[in-house]
Design goal:
4-stranded mixed beta sheet; 7 strands; about 150 residues; 2 domains; about 30% helix
Length: about 150
């Protein structure tokens, strides 16, 4: 039996416990020095930062050989939200071209730089909508149907 550093074993156990997408607040509930642990895990390649406070559990995704889709990450970062416009049309096979901007409709305030996130080669753009017009889900990635009313596509 080989000897390992206790911190390494603790990290692996913590990563196995965390879901594929998690927030820093989730780690703070489980680890006394969450920010130090997360910085070290990023350097080791065990987690990847999406934006400040939101992370992908690389270790868990590699073990399951399943990475979260862009739509799932986008809806997780700003919840509740759903994918709309060109990205949704392409997803449903209505649009022949592949867009590089994923537009999401949300109830969360999205003003200024907060409404855009660059993720790898794609741009996530959030637009706020009135509550009575919102037709998304509060959990998981929702992609709007091409048969929705016109206000969802404008």
């Amino acid at each position: 039996m080989s000897w390992r550093k206790p911190e390494r074993i603790e990290s692996v156990k913590l990563l196995q416990f965390l879901p594929p997408l998690f927030r820093s607040i989730d780690v703070k509930k489980l680890h006394p020095q969450a920010s130090v642990w997360m910085n070290r895990a990023i350097k080791r390649g065990q987690i990847k930062r999406i934006i400040k406070g939101y992370y992908v559990n690389s270790l868990k995704c590699e073990m399951a050989q399943k990475w979260p889709e862009l739509e799932e990450v986008a809806c997780y970062v700003r919840s509740p939200s759903y994918v709309s416009k060109e990205w949704a049309l392409n997803f449903h096979g209505v649009l022949g071209q592949f867009p590089y901007t994923c537009t999401l409709i949300t109830l969360a305030t999205s003003v200024g730089r907060r409404n855009e996130i660059i993720l790898e080669d794609y741009r996530l753009e959030y637009a706020k909508i009135k509550g009575e017009l919102f037709s998304g889900s509060s959990s998981g990635a929702t992609i709007i149907s091409p048969h929705r009313k016109r206000h969802c596509w404008t």
